[in-house]
Design goal:
By secondary structure, the protein is an alpha/beta fold. It has twelve helices and nine strands.
């Protein structure tokens, strides 16, 4: 099939993306800091690699699906210049695809850094959740040079149900993802506030959920996240601290141009409050736990 593909980070999203590549007929090289996870993936097809550099020696396209910019830096440049990162091993003309939610200015600067090494770059944040990643139906918001897409696009389309190409240089993908995260965070916070008010007023939460999900006030986040609250299941599909980070990035981007974001600021404070109250690693729907005087549904 021509070029070889490697994927780094087999978490909730990355593992689904790697499976989508395999389902499309590719045999991806994979790396995860949890070696047993990469090895387990490879038992059904593909190859587990010992380090990002070892993966980069084999792959023409390297897809990074880690949590943030700091982890991406480690993937690329290793720890303390120990040459374990991709950048030291990637061939000139190969492509690095960055799927994390990051500061757009950092992504723009990364493109320039990699260009000096002869490495092409695609700024490609993702959205849709683990289930859509696993089924190949997630959304990818990408930007990069045409020559990068010429090599990487077949792999991107194998992983994403919808691939948006938003420009020929890095930054646009990350900016659109940041705006998506603004809406996602505000919608979760608003959904939690609405459900909390219903609980405070003695409304049956299941009835409230039924009515709202069939009314104009519904949102995808209300329908998805308040189902977690009704089930009293705060297993972290996306944790509270993810929105501490992502809404922080939203506010950082706006602050640079002195643009006011009153709803984002309030939602960020709500997630910060939930985090410091001990719910940092719980599902982001646990932001509802900051409201006093309510009795949350319990597991049946």
């Amino acid at each position: 099939m021509g070029n070889a593909i490697g994927l780094i980070g087999l978490g909730a999203m990355g593992s689904g993306m790697a499976k989508s590549l395999r389902r499309a007929g590719y045999a991806p090289y994979v790396f995860d800091v949890r070696r047993e996870v990469a090895q387990a993936f490879a038992t059904e097809g593909g190859t587990a690699c010992a380090s990002p550099a070892a993966l980069a020696e084999k792959a023409d396209v390297v897809v990074s699906v880690v949590v943030n910019a700091a982890q991406t830096e480690s993937v690329l440049f290793g720890h303390n210049n120990d040459n374990s990162g991709c950048a030291s091993a990637m061939k000139p003309g190969s492509v690095f695809v960055m799927c994390s939610t990051v500061d757009p200015n950092w992504s723009i600067a990364l493109e320039a850094r990699l260009e000096k090494l002869g490495i092409l770059y695609i700024d490609a944040p993702i959205s849709g959740g683990a289930a859509r990643a696993a089924s190949g139906e997630m959304t990818m918001m990408s930007a990069g040079k045409p020559e990068a897409f010429a090599i990487a696009e077949p792999f991107l389309r194998a992983m994403a149900g919808t691939l948006y190409k938003l420009g020929d240089k890095a930054g646009a993908g990350s900016k659109v993802k940041i705006i998506n995260q603004l809406l996602a965070g505000v919608h979760i916070a608003a959904a939690a506030e609405a459900m909390a008010l219903g609980l405070r007023e003695g409304v049956d939460p299941a009835a409230l959920y039924e009515v709202i999900t069939h009314s104009a006030g519904n949102s995808w986040m209300f329908e998805n996240r308040m189902a977690h609250v009704l089930a009293a299941d705060y297993t972290p599909l996306s944790a509270v601290d993810i929105f501490v980070k992502d809404l922080g990035l939203v506010l950082d981007m706006a602050r640079a141009s002195k643009f006011p974001l009153p709803l984002s600021s309030t939602a960020h404070q709500m997630f910060m409050q939930a985090s410091t109250a001990g719910f940092a690693k719980e599902d982001d729907s646990a932001v509802i736990k900051i409201f006093p005087g309510i009795e949350l549904p319990q597991k049946k």
